[in-house]
Amino acid sequence: MKGLLKSCFFGIKGNLRVIGAAAVILGGICLIMGDPSAVGIFPFLPAPVLGAAAVACLRRESASRWSRYKITLPVRRRDIVKSQYISHGICALAGMACAGIFLCLALIIHGNIYFYYGFRDVLTLILGGGILAVFMGAIAYPLYYWWGEEKTEVIIALAILGAVAVILALSMLINFLTGEGGVTDTQYYVSLAVILLIALAAYAGSCFLSAQIYEKTEW
């Protein structure tokens, strides 16, 4: 498993340099400008971008024939799938950590002038991108193992759109269930926890489904 994880991270190593440089530049501009909209939007970006990079590296594996070679190794196909899901999860956590560092710097430089309980609080800004990345992975990998590497770009686009649609649908459902009287702070954070649990459950189920598809794939 360690070798498989190393191969996953080696595949996204080149993208990480570009993403890291872009994040530092864009994050620095947002911090210098201090625009509330930019400070509120930027924390949502690192985790989904890193998640998309993790999915995109599968195309590079196919181009280098590594995806075909590793199934000849003494490892189970389900372990290959698990390694991809674990690396995607680590990318999501890394993106959330980047968002947390950015928000800490925003608080240090500008003070607590941007954040308030609800959609613009620090916890939501950090978890929001992570949840989006998790749903992206839950959608992308079964499609990849079903359709193949030729449609990787389409799969990434569908994963992003699908993840956003799922989060919006869950948010609308929660708003409907809570009624028109508004949502209290307690209800909001309970709802956020529920969405997080649903995302993790979907991710686990997606991993099982991808393993089943990959086991039946003929090369």
TrEMBL record:
It holds the Pfam family ABC2_membrane_5. InterPro entries: ABC2_memb-like. Keywords: Membrane, Transmembrane, Transmembrane helix. The keyword Membrane applies. The chain crosses the membrane at residues 16-34, 40-58, 85-110, 122-147, 154-176, 188-211. This is ABC-2 transporter permease. The lineage of its organism: Bacteria, Bacillati, Bacillota, Clostridia, Lachnospirales.
